[in-house]
Amino acid sequence: MAAPALESWQAVAPRRRRSGARHPRPREALATRNPRAEPEVDGGVVLRRIREAEADLLISDFWSLALETINKCLKKHLEQRNTPVGTLSEAIGDLHLDPSPDESDAAPGSIPGETLVTGTCDWKCVCYGIGNFATCVIARNQLTFLLLFLEKCQIPRSHCWVYDPLFSQLEIAVLNTLGVTVLRENEEGKRSVCGEPTIFYMLHCGTALYNNLLWSNWSADALSKMVIIGNSFKGLEERLLTRILQKNYAYVAKILKGLEEHAFPQSPQYTDTFNDTAVHWFPVRKLCQLSPDTWAFREEPDYRGCEDLEIIQNETQAPSATDSNLL
Fold first, then answer.
1. Which of 153, 163, 173, 288 has the fewest CB neighbours in a 10 Å radius?
2. Pick the CATH number of 43-81+122-324 from 3.40.1350, 4.10.410, 3.40.710, 3.40.50
3. Does the global pTM surpass 0.85?
4. Is residue 177 left, alpha or beta, with left meaning phi > 0 and alpha meaning psi from -120 to 50?
5. What pLDDT is attached to residue 121?
């Protein structure tokens, strides 16, 4: 029996900002009726529509340009990880990596083609806030990009963890069929990389989600292992008043000088899907230039009294031990 249809997120007119860049309201804020939404159907139809979206994305100029943008970032990240241990140790201390599972099998439903530059780095991937892809074209295109990206980056789908508090039972079943791992609890973005190089795919998410993620990995060691594909941090800085950014999203504010950002290409075909999206990584040389006081501040974010908090919070405030140990 199909789960009741859920309303998908709509990009609405932005609030007052310093720049004219278009930016959708994060889908965690409020569920509103989307004129591009479709009636929810059965899993077979959803899978067929994902395959059709894959075919459209693969032949688009946007796909090749977006891959080029991501590849540029991954190359730099790989060069950093290949730096002799002694050199990195002087900056951030000895790196202790947990062994990665030896999994070389191809992801189910994989699409052949050129792979991204990943070297011997065994990436994990975490996806937050993909939205109701069974009923929303925008969310489905974002999911399609993720699936193709996993193939290009040679990340087994079993090494990709996905969560959105709005997923219907049908959508969870489809994701299980696709081979990704659906998290059972709302982590609010508070997931540590646990020493593993991890790509976080977080399109059009609330600022608090990025802030929580940074807090959970607040060290040069952990941040140097992360790549974030999501809302432009430069855009966040431009849109939010400085005092609001520093008060409510302190970790986003503090890391702005410790990252490099590469914007996604502009595409009329995918404007609503990937606008304001960028790839972020954290060079060790920049992280080491931040003041000691920056790293000394480690208080957990508290959003009481924060207006327009654009995430759905979890009453338990903590992920289950089982899910935390999955990465």
1. 288
2. 3.40.50
3. no
4. alpha
5. 59
